[in-house]
Amino acid sequence: MRWQLLLTGLALMMVFEGMAPFAAPRAWRRAIARIASMPDNVIRTVGGIVMAVGAMLLLMITNV
Fold first, then answer.
1. What are phi and psi for residue 24, nearest 5 degrees?
2. How far is CA 8 from the centre of its chain?
3. Rounded to the nearest 5 degrees, what angle is found at the Cα of 45, between the Cα atoms of 39 and 42?
């Protein structure tokens, strides 16, 4: 595995994750509060869907 590529992906994820709290901290805080009040199974389902979509995109990108 290319460590540079893995670290590049991690760095890009960190940039994207930091954009919302940097740009709109109040809205981000409200969204996090809403997420915290959701049942575990809903959060788990959404997380699974996001991971599956990310994995499919990764496979599409690496198989080009």
1. -145, 75
2. 15
3. 15
Query: For the segment 34-64, what is each residue's pLDDT rounded down to a tens digit?
Result: 999 999 999 999 999 999 998 998 888 888 6
* pTM (predicted TM-score): 0.72
One-letter amino acid at 49 equals: I
pLDDT tens column, 9-27: 899 999 999 999 999 999 9
Find the DSSP H helices in the chain. 3-23, 25-36, 40-62
